[in-house]
């Protein structure tokens, strides 16, 4: 069983989660938020309401040069990150977030791309 620290601190868990059964099991075990990325892109139904419970899934879209990356950044898709984020705005559980990777690792946040996403 995974539990919140002292039941006062919510636990967020992500990485490699690829199916609805796993999402539901983590939530049942006490995880406050389950973060999915690749599964959201490859199988969008896995993060739609009513299952899993609304508000327990964070959709994290990794993006490079405006396109969504999956599988731990190893595959670049043809999906435009802003278009896909808009899709999840109405179909995914909340909250959702998007990360933008700069061209070189360890160089900080891509402020311009993040502002553009928030604006749109």
How would you characterize the overall build of this protein?
This protein has a single domain (12-101), classed as Aldolase class I (TIM Barrel, Alpha-Beta Barrel). It has four helices and six strands; from the N terminus they run βαβαβββαβα. It has helices spanning 20-28, 38-42, 81-91, 111-119; strands at 12-14, 33-36, 57-64, 67-70, 75-80, 96-100. The chain is globular and about 35 Å long. The mean pLDDT is 75.
Strand content is: 25-35%
Distance between the first and last residues' Cα: 39 Å
CATH H level, superfamily name: Aldolase class I
Uncertain spans, ≥5 residues at pLDDT below 50?
A: none
Number of strands: 6
What is the element string, with H for helices and E for strands? EHEHEEEHEH
Query: Any idea how many domains?
Result: 1
Multimer state? single chain
Can you name the CATH architecture? Alpha-Beta Barrel
- Helical segment tally? 4
Mean pLDDT over the full residue set = 75
Computed Rg: 15 Å
Largest sheet properties: 6 strands, mixed
Task: Give the CA-based shape.
Answer: globular
Q: Using the coordinates above, name the CATH class.
A: Alpha Beta
Question: What is the structural class?
Answer: alpha/beta
């Amino acid at each position: 069983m995974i539990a919140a620290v002292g039941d006062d601190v919510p636990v967020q868990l992500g990485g490699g989660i690829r199916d609805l059964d796993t999402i539901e099991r983590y939530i049942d075990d006490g995880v406050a938020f389950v973060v999915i990325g690749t599964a959201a892109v490859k199988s969008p139904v896995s993060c739609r309401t009513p299952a899993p419970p609304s508000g327990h899934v964070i959709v994290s879209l990794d993006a490079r040069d405006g396109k969504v990356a999956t599988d731990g950044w190893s595959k670049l898709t043809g999906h435009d990150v802003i278009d896909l984020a808009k899709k999840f705005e109405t179909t995914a559980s909340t909250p959702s977030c998007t990360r933008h990777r700069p061209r070189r690792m360890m160089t900080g946040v891509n402020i311009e791309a993040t502002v553009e996403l928030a604006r749109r």
